[in-house]
Every structure is written in C-alpha cells, then in structure tokens.
Amino acid sequence: MPLHNHKTTIDDLFTVEAMTKPLNVHRISRKERNPEAVYQMIHDELLLDGNSRQNMATFCSTWLEREVHELMHECIDKNMIDKDEYPQTANIESRCVSMLSNLWNAKEVTDPAAKDHSPAIGCSTTGSSEAAMLGGMALKWNWKARQKAAGKPYDKPNLVCGPVQVCWHKFARYWEIELRELPMHKGSYMSSPEDVLAHCDENTIGVVQTLGTTFTGHYEPIEEVHAALDKLQQDTGLDIPMHIDAASGGFVAPFMHPEIKWDFRLSRVKSINSSGHKFGLSPLGCGWVIWASEKDLPEDLIFRVNYLGGQMPTFALNFSRPGGEVIAQYYNLLRLGFEGYMKVQGASYDAARFFTEGLKKFGLFEFINDSSKGLPLVCWKFKDNAKAPFSLYQLSDELRQRGWLIPTYTLPPDCEDIVVQRIVVRHGTTVDMLHLLLKDFKEVIDELMESPPCGPDKERKSFNHS
Ligand SMILES: *Cc1c(COP(=O)(O)O)cnc(C)c1O
Fold first, then answer.
1. Are 68 and 253 spatial neighbours (Cβ–Cβ below 8 Å)?
2. Could you tell me the CA-to-CA distances from 70 to 4, 76, 333, 345, 409 in Å, in that order?
3. From CA 397, how far away is CA 444, in angstroms rounded?
4. Which residues lie in coiled coils (predicted)?
C-alpha cells in the first residue's frame, strides 16, 4: 500500500540516491531525502524481523480487524492526556472502564446491599506493566497509611506473590519493596496457599496472584489463597489485600471459565490489571487497571487535570500517550460483546486442543498446561523416558528456519531444571496454520532423529525476559 501519493521525482524508485549509495544511518543527514525511497528502504529492512503471525511466543495481538486499522489511522493524532481537547476520547475510556469493572464483577453502586460503596475506578495504561505498577503503588500507599495510623514503622514493605511476570520484579525494585516470590511446585506449576500464608506479615503490602501465568498459562488458586488470607485475619488480625495480575486471563476467564472466582466477587481483591493488547484483542499499547472502589485508590496518587472546565482525576506514569488503542478497545467491546469474545477465545481453545493432539502423536512430549484452569496455550516438555537425541532448544532453532518462533525456556525456581516449549494460541492462530506447524515439526524431528546435532547443546538463556 503506497503511503505517499506525491511523487517527488520521475526517476525509478530504486535509482534515486538514497537507494544507490550506502547511508550513514547513525548520524542525522544534512540533506532531505526522497520520502518514497526512505519509506521503501525501511519497509524492506523490516522484512528481516520475525513474522508476527508466526511468533508463537507472544500473548499480544498479531491480527487486527480492518476496522481497527482504520480507527487507529483516524486516531493517530489523539492524545489520551488531552481530556479537555478530546472529550469524546476521554469519555470512551471511561465507558471501557465501566464495561470492564462490570465484566470483573465490581459491585454496582445501585445495589442496595452495597451501602456506602463507592464505585469502581480505573484507567487505561500502555499495558499491564504500567497497570501493575499503578496497582502496586496503591497497595504500598495504603499499607503505609495503615502502619502510620497504627503508629508502626513503615520502612520495610514486602510483596508476596507466586511466580510472576518480570513487571513485578521491576515494581519491587523501583519502589524498594522486598519481593517474596514463592517457588513454583512441580506438578502444579504454581505456588500454594500455604506458602502464601507462611510469607505474609504486617509489612506485607499485598498478595499478587496471576490469572494465567506467563510460564505455563495456569490460573493461580486465587479463591483458595483468598480463603487462606481470611483465615489469617481470623487468627492474627492481619487484613491483607490482593491484587490480581490478569494480564491475559482478564479477557479470557470471564468468557470461558465464568465459574472461577478470581475478581471483585472476592472482597480482598482490591485491584486488577489486564492487557487490552493481549486477549482483549486491541492493538499494542493498551492495558487496564481497575480498583474495586474509589476508596482503594489513595487520593495522594491522583492528579487532577483540567477537563471541560472541570477537574478530571488521572493516575498514570506517562503524560502524553496515544488514544487509538483505547478507541480500538472500545470498538472490540462494542463489536464483539460477550458472545463474540466467547467465540474468539473458544476458537483458540479448540485450535490449542487440535495442536496438542497432533503433538501427542510424536510420543515424545508431556503436556503441562491445563486448559480447564488456564489460558489457551500449549506448553510441553520431553517425557522423562523420551531419549531424544536433540534438545528442545535445538528443535526451536530448526523450526526457526521455517519462520516459526517457538520459545524454549526453563521454568522459575523450584522448577528450574525443567525445560519447556510453549505456543500461545490466540486470535488468528488458525487450525490450518497449526496444521502447517505440525507438518514442520514432523519434518524437523525426523531430520533431527536421523542426523542428531553433533556435540552437546550449550546452556541457553532463558526466554522469560528476566
Ligand atoms: C504480559 C504480562 C505482563 C506484562 O504486560 P504488558 O501488557 O506486556 O506490559 C504482566 N503480567 C503477566 C501475567 C503477563 O502475561
């Protein structure tokens, strides 16, 4: 699709100077260049990137409806922070917050049982990492206020969590909080409620549980942890809040596993983050954080910006930020509705099952994800008796020659001796594509069996961004 319709020269594109001379791409040039040529050059360089549709590692959207492309194009100039100038964009963000609060079962203020209940509050972010940072900050501020009020010290905060995504390591480091990350147990691939309890004390700002871990896709046992914390309060008086990292699961569980209680139905759950750009089906750059009630977000953290002559509360790490992703989220929520999301996520589970069945036929792999209590992904390791003359890393390398990006990594402690491979099945991962992938698995495995790679495989860096 040519983006430039103003021809700047009649010369053939590939004969202009920008195309025929090596460019110094590390210094800004003195002169201007032909836009078509520069566009084409960059376009061609990007061909060397991996192909996102074959990126089986990512949880993020890699296919978007035409209407989303159009809205993104129309919104390229919308700045999310300019609430006064773009009141409709601001309004649309609030509508998304309402829809998601409702989807995650925040108490309705009109509910007579919810006396004194202030409404849920939240905002869009650039992704779950920013959202987690905001949720975590609220936990820290609230804890500090509790400690101060009780005349207790507030210099040694800790956060208790299971095996978390790297954004929580960042949060803990940036805000000087001791991260008590619990071990992953073999077999369940999660931490346990007992571990959580054993690590909580009066300096615990909160407990983070993940709805769909990045490692194996499991939903952590949130309801059990919640019950354990209730027991802790009965026994010791400690009242510990929970934050749920529902980066992926927030847009999956409500549609596919509505019976699993993980959200504002549980009273300790004070805040939830989710990535609009993962199973929310928005383009990259969209996340959400929602607090159960206004009271859970400390007033200190809120900045008021001028909005239609009034004051609009904002809480964000960024100032200027694009608005298109939020508009696209709104489009998806309106366009798909509950049934649409069910169909899209349901198709991913079906495709994941298809792939699992295909992979089973090799007789080499043991599956460690659980799609009845987890995300639509497939995660496997070698069976203990597999005796394959190659490593999973070498299998990934071979598949990469066909463009497939299949991550191989070790699990976190205490499962660090387990090497796994994983694909995330998401919107646009079709059965047909997975069929082609399985054919390539077959070809590559046959080859590796026939002529095993010589020499031992070297230790690889783990995939999980840490
Ligand atoms: C992806 C992910 C994150 C980080 O989210 P971004 O939207 O990429 O910033 C955090 N937690 C979990 C569980 C995730 O899967």
1. no
2. 17, 10, 16, 23, 37
3. 10
4. none
Per residue in 423-447, pLDDT (tens digit) is 999 999 999 999 999 999 999 999 9
Average pLDDT over residues 83-100: 94
Amino acid at 184: M
Residue 164 neighbours by CB under 8 Å, 6+ apart = 181, 208, 210, 213, 245
Distance CA 351, CA 336 (A): 20
pLDDT at 32 (0 to 100): 93
- pLDDT, one tens digit per residue, over 383-392 is 999 989 999 9
Contact 297, 266 (CB under 8 A): no
More confident: 177 or 2: 177
* Cα-based distances in Å from 421 to 197, 380, 382: 31, 5, 9
Geometric angle at alpha carbon 204, from 313 and 417, rounded to 5°:
110
Task: Give me the phi and psi of 374, to 5 degrees please.
Answer: -175, -175
Best of 214, 281, 282 for a ligand 1 pocket test (most atoms within 8 Å of beta carbon): 214
**Tokens, residue 448:** 């590796």
* Pair of tokens at residue 312: 């609009």
Q: How far, in Å, from the CA of 450 to the mean position of ligand 1?
A: 40
Question: Which of these, 439, 436, 405, 446, lies nearest to 422 by C-alpha position?
Answer: 405
CB under 6 Å to ligand 1: residues? 59, 127-129, 132, 165, 167, 210, 214, 245, 247-248, 275, 287
Closest CA to 75 of 359, 326, 297: 326
CA distance 294 to 288: 16
Boundaries of every domain in the chain: 71-108+116-333
Dihedrals φ, ψ of 265, to 5°? -65, -25
Sign of CA pseudo-dihedral 246, 342, 424, 219: positive
Q: Report how far ligand 1's centroid is from the alpha carbon of 248 (Å).
A: 7
Distance, CA of 52 to CA of 62 (rounded, Å)? 6
Residue 368 and residue 379: Cα distance in Å, rounded? Answer: 6
pLDDT computed for residue 466 by the predictor:
44
Structure tokens at 391: 């490593």
CATH fold of 71-108+116-333: Aspartate Aminotransferase; domain 2 (3.40.640)
pTM as predicted: 0.95
pLDDT tens per residue, range 198-212: 999 999 999 999 999
Residue 26, C-beta contacts closer than 8 angstroms, at least 6 positions apart: none
First CA to last CA across the chain, in angstroms? Answer: 38
- Centre of ligand 1 to C-alpha 167, Å, is 7
How many CB atoms sit inside 10 A of residue 141's CB? 16
> Nearest CA to 376 among 41, 56, 12, 15?
56
